[in-house]
Amino acid sequence: MSDNTFPVFTADAIVNFYRTEVLTGQEAKHLAKSDLTPAPKPETVQTLYTRVLHLLYHFRPECHSMVPLLENIQYPVYHEGATSIMSVYIRMRQFLPFCLVYDFSLNDLLAPKKQRTLTVLSAIMNFLQFRKLRMVKTLEKQAKFRADVDRLQAYTKGTLEAERKIEMLTTIPPEQQAEADELAAALSEVHTNTAHLSQEVTAKKDRVAELKTFIAEKTQKLAQLKVDISNQKEDISKLKSQIVESPEELKSQMEKMREKVKNIKISIEEADERVVELQNMLQSVSHTEAELQLMYNQLQDLESSMNNTNQRHEENQELTAQYEKKQKELKNLYMEEGQLKRALGMKLDKQSKQSIRRQKKKEMKEQHVQDVLGQCNQIQHKREEMADKIQEISRETKQLKAKIQSLRDVCSKEKEKAQALYNTLSTSMDELHMRVEMHIVDVKCDVTKMAPNF
């Protein structure tokens, strides 16, 4: 006991703990420090041990005295007082190794000592505190297990609802199937039309770009012609001021100039016609641009609808991914549920086996109690018989005591007579011895007197 792995508490701490945790009612009120120190009371120590056994194993105190006795034991009544103490001792020998106490003896029940009792009670106190902590942990684990089971049920419900929603989203109702087919066909037609229109738009854009470059070249040439005309007009005005030639040459030059002017006018008219044509073409191009804008808006609408469909498709993919994830989680939960069910089944089997065992033990205990009651009845009859025999023996002993007393009186009288005889004999013997001694002295004197004559 010198190398303990548990603390040895003081008597006050032990009394407070056993008052609050083990004892109840009047026993808790009457327990005091004087019951343990300086000299522990055996009744208090035995009561504490029986209450601890009742708390841990639900072994009631009255069961300690219900130990069956063998039929071949003579006088089983004599064993009634020792059965309860032996029962508590056997149970404590079985229990205390869990508290790291291996040397519990019967003397700890019958004649307990202070330090030894405090050590054993401290070991039991340490075990009860550890048991309380473990019970709290097990209750927390049970609560967590119940919460996990509730969460599993909630997850299963959520997965079922998600499966229903996915089925609702993926399946098209039969009344909307025809409309969906029409929309799909219209969408394919719109795709083909948009492809053709996009090709036409690109061709027209190329044509418009070519026309713009052509118009830019023509306008550049027209501006150049206007510059040339203005330069020629300036030259004509200069030439008019410098003309000193003949009228024939002037006419010829004027005719040439008129022809040039006609040519220039013709080219200007042609350029105007070309400009009108180009303006008409620009109007048609603007009209086509407006149509293209409308087509572009329709294409944007289609693109937005396509984006919406793509988003829905992505959402559907996300939902399928979530559904697969939930399926995996559900499989894991099913596996955990299976494991829990197996554990629960094993636990239920154990509980059923334990209940059967308890039922059998209960039946055996009831049978045992009935046997014990029968034995108790037999013991009671035997006890009554023994009581009658004891009464007879007590009467006989009383008579014998009376006879013994009378014999003692007679013996005392005889003893007094023998003592008187002894006293008289001793006095006579003393007188005889005195006479013999005197006679011897006389003889010695005569011998001494006679010695010179010889």
How would you describe this protein?
This protein has 454 residues and is mainly α. It is 84% helix and 0% strand. It contains eight helices and no strands. Helix 1 (11-21) crosses helix 6, helix 3 (42-57) crosses helix 4 (80-95) and helix 7 crosses helix 8.
Number of helices: 8
| Outline type | rod-shaped
Instruction: State the total count of DSSP E strands.
Output: 0
Largest sheet: none
The computed structural class is mainly alpha
Instruction: Round the Cα radius of gyration to an integer and report it.
Output: 68 Å
- Share of helical residues: over 70%
Q: Write down the secondary-structure element order.
A: HHHHHHHH
Amino-to-carboxy terminus distance: 97 Å
Low-confidence stretches: none
pLDDT averaged residue by residue: 81
Q: Provide the β-strand percentage band.
A: under 5%
How would you sum up this structure in a few lines?
Helices cover 84% and strands 0% of the residues.
